[in-house]
Amino acid sequence: MDQQATGNPATGPATDHLGETGGVVDLGMPAPGGAFDEHHPPDAALVGDCVHCGFCLPTCPTYALWGEEMDSPRGRIYLMKEGLEGEPMTDSMVEHWDACLGCMSCVTACPSGVQYDTLIEQTRAQVERHHRRSASERALRGLIFAIFPHPKRLRLLRGPLRGLQRTGLDRALRRTGLLERVAPSLAAMESLAPRLERPERLPERLTATGERRAVVGMLTGCVQGAFFPGVNAATGRVLQAEGCDVVVPRDQGCCGALSVHNGREAEAQRYARRIVDSFEAAGVEWVVVNAAGCGSTMKDYARLLADDPAYAERAARFAERVRDVSEILDELGPVAPRHPLAVTVAYHDACHLAHAQGVRAQPRSLLRGIPGLELREIAEAELCCGSAGIYNILNPEPARELGDRKAANIVATGARLLVTANPGCLMQVASAITRSGHPMGMAHTVEVLDASIRGLPVSDLLPGTNAAPDAVSAG
User: Fold this and answer.
1) Architecture of 338-461 per CATH?
2) What are the entry keywords (predicted)?
3) 443 phi and psi, to 5 degrees?
């Protein structure tokens, strides 16, 4: 749609930007009657930055799957432009925006610096306010957000889930294929659940080993805390060994990442305020995160809470202190001795670590610092594994295709151990690797570092071992 910009009567004439679509983008408020209201619509100036060059296309997972222009970043930006110019929000528009994984691979690939991450989050918040989903979609999303951002509710699921796994009923149900036929999204949730072992105790404060080099707060997360407690325990041990006092606030709650990425703006802001309050009260120098999606959201709290006069400045200060665990360890430099681990490792870049946070070199550097470890790169590393927060539950079929594609590339490396930095990626890739029939070990970056620092055998990181790690020491 090519509609001449007319400007906003309240602000005067609009500034125009001519894009290669041939349309003129109004840099004022969205046109009346269009898809978007005036509360943070997709930023027209950012929309105008897209010159439709196509560099994003080979890095976009949905374009790679379907070859459909409207399921590429530039196609979705064109739909945003139409909405700004007065086109009403349609089911078709929403389907294309919903199909986006939000992996931000296009942000890395774009030579024009288009801030697609900001645009898709602004758009999804508008969708949540103005689009009426089907009853089944509302029920599924309601179930997800009634459980996943609530650590206590997730922990309550551990008992029943562990019971299913111990009795083998989960595998028996999977073999029947019944759940997949009746409720594909619930089947996806069941198949993604990791094998659960006993939870590890994480004290409220861990004391640095040797000379104290920093005082850090640690986010325990929702899914990470409930389903991967060993990752949190390993994070605490590694930070201790590298000279950090580690504070674990008990009242921290959810960071709001899932809510932000799915357009639930007000809910995300409530979670963010609680996190800011909690870590401010803890009096720490840095806030350390071991889940990529959480870290990218927390680093963006300044934008999320920019309209809140009570929190805007506090959120900006907080965001400046957030570090992925690999960043803080790389910045500090190693002091704890590394014991050899003779193992081949394929490192998978979690999208919200590599693309959203730009953290690529640090995890690799940490892994290469372990004697005997051989690091191998994965083909098509820029393509998402299909996890993308809750995407693999809302869109199980394309997520499965992407997971199987990622698994094939991982298996092709010949590595014995897959390492990544996000719980969603660990679940998604583990499920796909199981389907591939080529079992291999799965670990978070800090678990490998922890094994090296403690002198544990490589077998502890590979399939077929059930050794339970030691509890974390309070120092």
Assistant:
1) 3-Layer(aba) Sandwich (3.40)
2) 4Fe-4S, Electron transport, Iron, Iron-sulfur, Metal-binding, Repeat, Transport
3) -155, 155
3-state secondary structure of 209: coil
pLDDT digits (tens, 9 = 90+) for 188-238: 666 666 677 777 778 999 999 999 999 999 999 998 988 899 999 999 999
Fold matches, 205-330 and 338-461 = yes
Is 61 in contact with 386 (CB distance < 8 Å)?
yes
Tokens of 124: 């999804």
CATH of region 205-330: 3.40.50.1860
Q: At what angle do helices 396-412 and 423-436 cross, to 10 degrees?
A: 70
d(CA 287, CA 45): 33
411 closest CA partner among 368, 444, 442, 445: 442
Strand partners, 222: none
Q: Model-level pTM?
A: 0.86
Amino acid at 85: E
Residue 339 DSSP one-character state = P
CA distance 189 to 180: 10
- The rounded distance, in Å, linking the Cα atoms of 127 and 132 is 9
Sole residue written with tokens 């691979």: 105
